[in-house]
Amino acid sequence: MNSNNTTWRSPLVILTVGCVILTLSMGVRHTAGLFLQPMTADNGWTRETFSFAFALQNLIWGLGSPFAGALADRFGAGRTLLVAAAFYVLGLVFMSVSPTPLSLDLSAGLLIGIGLSGTTFPVIMGVIGRHTTPERRSLALGIASAGGSFGQFAVLPIGQMMISTYGWQSALVLLACGVGLIAPLAYAMADGHKPSAGAGQSVVEALHEASRERSFHYLFWGYFVCGFQTAFIMLHLPSYLVDAGMSANIGMTAVALIGLFNIFGSFYFGWAGGRSSKKNLLVWIYGLRAVAILIFMLIPLSTVTAWIFAAVIGILWLATVPLTNGLIAQIFGLRYMSMLTGVVFLGHQLGSFLGAWLGGRIFDETGSYSLAWTISIGLSILAAICSWPVNEKPLARLSPAT
Amino acid sequence: MKPNWRWFLGGVGVALLVLLLALIFAAYQMPELLIDWANLSYCG
Fold this sequence. Notes:
The complex is a heterodimer of chains A (402) and B (44).
Chain A: H1 2-7, H2 11-30, H3 36-43, H4 47-75, H5 77-96, H6 101-119, H7 121-130, H8 134-166, H9 168-180, H10 182-189, H11 203-212, H12 214-243, H13 248-273, H14 278-298, H15 303-315, H16 320-332, H17 337-366, H18 370-387
Helix pairs in contact in A: 2-7, 2-8, 2-10, 3-4, 4-5, 4-6, 4-17, 5-6, 5-9, 5-10, 7-8, 7-16, 7-17, 8-9, 8-13, 8-16, 12-13, 12-17, 12-18, 13-15, 13-16, 14-15, 14-16, 14-18
Chain B: H1 3-27, H2 31-40
């Protein structure tokens, strides 16, 4: 296996394939909401039925990530990607013929949730992290994050075109075909590589070690805030703008701007993380998010301010991903990187669930998003404070090299 | 590969990428997407 690695599984190949897989997995996931209207109309379901299945998916995605990461660390990323892609494809196909709410929960919630756990950041970042030098790792993780960002940006309109042209059931099958491409691509990620650092350490020992490190907890809760803010803003910003009297077109352009600038932000902060302190960059990202939201709240709302806010938030959107994943690799080493990044990603998903749900709940209770924006600012400040004391030094057992 | 060609091909790649991003950005203005966007607020 190693001889093969030297011939064609170069870091460039691993990075390119990783980007394509993230584009497919994150992009197809991002189209989910487009199916609400046609599926609920055709099946006679309520919106709550549909929402519950996708809330379940978010939770299973988060809960499954540490396990998918651990499987990738133990049995290899290739096998994990292959199995997860199969779950993802089955989930999409089963979703296209789901006749009842329970079958929707099982397909869109359970199967796709498991599929996402094994085809997104924790597994991919682990392989990319192993195949890059410490100096270039952050940039590589940034490029991979940009791949996921590109998928979110690009696949949404493609999904809508598929629904408009072929109908929602065929669109789901076509998207399943797209996700199916992950299976052959997984072969390129089957590096069979096990770094020597941390050899002898078990999964439980690695988890125990991480749980004793305060930096790990800081990263977990920082990611929780990231998830809270991104879910809240993505789901509720368009409604917020429409409530303020703006057209849906302006809200949609804001969403497109977030997606577009997200690509540049992921790349930039990945590059910057290789040149300066990652935890300081996290402090800046969370701090700037707080400042951006505060200014957005204080100045009069207009089309221009909404678009500028969307662009600024877009730059800061997934910028936390390469930095947080890079810090995990830097502090704890590469052997259990997938599993440990899966654990902090669970924090992200819990935050996402809360941000999406609480935003709606607060609006229903108070009739405005003001409190939710204020909570978002407060959490951002807390995340910045949490990121500051993160100790970036590798653990003693990893010295002299990570 | 000569440096001149490398720069040229790199420039072409960047230009194509910018064009692709611009096309995707424009695709967000599709009327169908505007209507269905409201759906996203229900499921994340």
